[in-house]
Amino acid sequence: MAETPKIRFGIIGCADIARKVSRAINLAPNATLHAVGSRSLDKARAFAAANGFPEGTKVYGSYEAVLDDPDVDAVYVPLPTSLHLRWVSLAARKKKHVLLEKPVALSASEFEEIIEACESNGLQLMDGTMWMHHPRTAAMKEFLSDAHRFGRLTSIQTCFTFAADADFLENDIRVKPDLDALGSLGDEGWYCVRAILWAANYELPKTVIATRKPDLNKAGVIMSCGATLTWEDGKIATFYCSFLSNLAMDIAAVGTKGTLHVHDFIIPYEEKEASFYAASESSFDDLVTKWVSQPSKHVIKTEIPQEALMVSEFARLVADIKFNNSKPEKKWPIISRKTQLVLDAVKASIEKGFEPVDIQE
Q1: Angle subtended at Cα 224 by Cα 100 and Cα 130, rounded to the nearest 5 degrees
Q2: Phi, psi (degrees; rounded to nearest 5) at 321
Q3: DSSP state, 241?
Q4: Rounded to the nearest 5°, which phi and psi values hold at 4?
Q5: What's residue 4's pLDDT?
Q6: pLDDT-flagged residues of the chain (< 50)
Q7: What local confidence, expressed as pLDDT, does residue 1 receive?
Q8: Which domains does the chain have, with CATH numbers?
Q9: Nearest partner of 308 among 8, 26, 10, judged by Cα
Q10: Alpha-carbon distance 130 to 62, whole Å?
Q11: Helices 84-93 and 108-119 meet at what angle, rounded to 10?
């Protein structure tokens, strides 16, 4: 049987995160870097040279030129969030599948336009939430789904923070209202909310209440914030995200019979292995001086990093469409939209003086 050709990627924009994803495309067994474009040809050339692009990679001095290349199957879009609707819509018209950096849009209604552009052209759309593709994530989900070991989910807490330096806080696109207006909420909060929805089997909460006194910069962009999410069945979740606190990326999920803890859920401590802690029916000794049933550590190894696994899964879906006449996998844009809906609700709660906001699906 003939080997399926590799999916040829174009990258539009030379953002810092594109360094990581271009490496991932190089490492994915079913993908190849075909083209990169920037607003400056010199910048695109320098980016390709600095990031190990294969010899023969096309280098363009505009985003349009990448989209006009007939040999590009799919594009990775690491542009500022304010540009997503414009460039994904154009990519869809050019029949390019889209791997889209998060946050996917400035609002759920804007993202719905992006979904429509891709779906109407039969194209695969996936966001760049890389930790979803690590084998640890599947192992953790197996534990959360085990009624005997974990039981029913009752609460989940997540956080993602890092202490940004002065240059970041002044110049990064994530602090600019015209580029990434959602700030920390869109960047770090996206991961926190996604983890909450993942643990809750993507059931949207009924109500969201933002935590009072978020940090805003002088342009009004969120530097740190938090929120509480509640469901009609009594589940509760909280998250906190910040550009102003030390590095942390935790999940704590509590069930009626078990608990799960992970301390590096977005970027593992090590590239090729990751761990989590699981406990079931925990208790104390008679004197209540120690745990009798202590959490167990589970270590999951991977041959290629989670970013390459993400690219590989996306390329597999694109290849199925291109070579097998398959339909696009709709679960990924559905999950993205739900994540965006929660972000919208947090932002609305802040703007409404920290009032509860109901989510309407």
Answers
A1: 30
A2: -70, -45
A3: E
A4: -65, 130
A5: 86
A6: none
A7: 55
A8: 7-130+307-326 (3.40.50.720), 132-303+340-358 (3.30.360.10)
A9: 26
A10: 27
A11: 10
